[in-house]
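User: Reviewer 2 asked us to show a designed sequence for the structure in our supplementary figure. I'm pasting the structure tokens here. Could you produce the per-position amino acids so we can include them in the response letter?
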């Protein structure tokens, strides 16, 4: 009897080849960890580590890519499937890219300025703050002038009682160790140089390279001397001067009080307050807030102001100007006067020549001294215009969801439920008045402006004391 031949048991299914673990992620983490360790040990400053990372973070992605390429080629030689990046790898790459982009933008934004901000504390790359003081003096030539250059720090200029220039220095240095701060203090000592009749004071904050150094300078010189001051980041104050003042300020507040000479102020994202000026004033650039009071001379040249929400220009200012965050008041101004803004209460007392105003969320009141063309557009607030009784003009006005009133009987006024209009000519109509308002009324009055009784009386502004800059914190 033939024996039954049993078939061999089926072979178990072959296991898929196991992926080899990638070394790309661990290598990148090791590199980053080494730099963090060196920074914690003080071998590398946090400031330098931040700068290096902001410039060279793409190297981490390059290292990652090279390792993955080598692993891919090795897997092909061994007949294995190459391992992909994986969810963890994707997350790590995304984190590196986001951190690198943020670091690159922060460096463009000058990280040293963040360290000087009083509202920001504990940033690891800022280190500790060390304070130093110093005093310098130099003979000041007769009929000389002073030039001051400062990258970061306040400049406070007063009058000396002798023929010397006195400089008192208040310095702040951010560093990881006292030794570093001491070294940078030596390389950033302010310098005084004399070339003929010109005395130059250099704050020398660039002496430590990219490290955040702040030099606040209290300078006293003879009253008759003219000055030229330039600050990139810090407040400027001038009190008591017979000579002229030429100021260039970026990211700071400028205060000039009791100046008998001319004042030239160039602003870039700065504010200015000028009072008791006996000569002419020229202001130009991009300003945040501007106040002009007790100007005995004139503002003789065309002025341009630009900020995040205000664009203003005019030909000459013979009166005063007060520009704040929510208010703009100007008196005795010569046009063409152009103003494009929003969220401001506008009052123009005494304007000559052409006027163009664009505003919203704030009333507009204009008193005309010599009428030119007048074009005003407002939204969600009232318009009040005061015109000399004998002026010659024609009117085209309309108000949506508001009414129109006029003291001039020659004008034809139609007030409706949703739309009101006014048109016509007065005394021949040589000038053109165009008024447009959305959700507000329009008034066309004769003569000089008269305060309308407000529901809540507005407290009069008190004269502000001159701003003596405190040590810069920005």
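Assistant: Here is a per-position design you can include in the supplement:
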């Amino acid at each position: 009897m033939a024996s039954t031949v049993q078939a061999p048991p089926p072979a178990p299914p072959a296991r898929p080849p196991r992926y080899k673990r990638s070394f790309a992620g661990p290598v990148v983490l090791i590199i980053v960890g080494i730099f963090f360790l060196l920074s914690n040990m003080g071998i590398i400053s946090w400031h330098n580590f931040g700068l290096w990372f902001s410039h060279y973070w793409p190297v981490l992605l390059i290292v990652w890519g090279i390792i993955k390429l080598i692993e891919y080629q090795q897997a092909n030689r061994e007949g294995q499937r190459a391992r992909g990046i994986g969810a963890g790898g994707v997350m790590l790459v995304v984190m590196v890219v986001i951190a690198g982009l943020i670091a690159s933008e922060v460096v463009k934004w000058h990280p040293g300025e963040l360290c000087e901000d009083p509202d920001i504390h504990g940033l690891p790359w800022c280190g500790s703050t060390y304070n130093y003081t110093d005093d310098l003096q130099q003979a000041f030539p007769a009929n000389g002038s002073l030039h001051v250059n400062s990258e970061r720090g306040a400049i406070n200029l007063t009058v000396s009682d002798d023929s010397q220039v006195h400089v008192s220095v208040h310095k702040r240095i951010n560093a990881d160790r006292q030794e570093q701060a001491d070294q940078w203090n030596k390389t950033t000592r302010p310098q005084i140089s004399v070339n003929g009749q010109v005395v130059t004071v250099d704050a020398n904050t660039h002496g430590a390279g990219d490290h955040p150094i702040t030099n606040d300078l209290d300078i006293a010189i003879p009253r008759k001397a003219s000055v030229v001051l330039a600050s990139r980041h810090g407040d400027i104050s001038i009190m008591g001067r017979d000579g002229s003042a030429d100021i260039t300020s970026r990211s700071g507040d400028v205060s000039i009080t009791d100046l008998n000479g001319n004042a030239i102020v160039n602003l870039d994202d700065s504010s200015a307050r000028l009072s008791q000026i006996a000569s002419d004033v020229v202001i130009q650039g991009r300003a945040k807030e501007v106040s002009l009071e007790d100007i005995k001379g004139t503002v003789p040249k065309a002025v341009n102001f630009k900020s995040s929400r205000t664009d203003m220009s005019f030909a000459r200012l013979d009166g005063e100007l007060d520009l704040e965050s929510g208010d703009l008041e100007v008196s005795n101004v010569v046009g063409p006067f152009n103003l494009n803004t929003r969220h401001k209460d506008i009052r123009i007392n005494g304007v000559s020549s052409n006027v163009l105003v664009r505003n919203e969320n704030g009333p507009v009141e204009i008193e005309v001294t010599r009428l030119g063309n007048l074009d005003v557009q407002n939204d969600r607030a009232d318009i009040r215009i005061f015109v000399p009784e004998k002026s010659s003009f024609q009117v085209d006005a309309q108000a949506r969801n508001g009414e129109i009133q006029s003291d001039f009987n020659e004008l034809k006024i139609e007030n409706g439920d949703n739309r009101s209009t006014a048109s016509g000519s007065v005394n021949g109509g040589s000038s053109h008045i165009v008024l447009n308002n959305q959700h507000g009324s329009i008034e066309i009055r004769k003569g000089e402006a008269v305060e309308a009784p407000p529901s809540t009386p507005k407290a009069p502004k008190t004269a502000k004391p001159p701003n003596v800059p405190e040590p810069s914190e920005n």
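For the response letter, you might also mention the following. Residues 331 and 371 are 15 Å apart (CA to CA). The chain has six helices and 28 strands.
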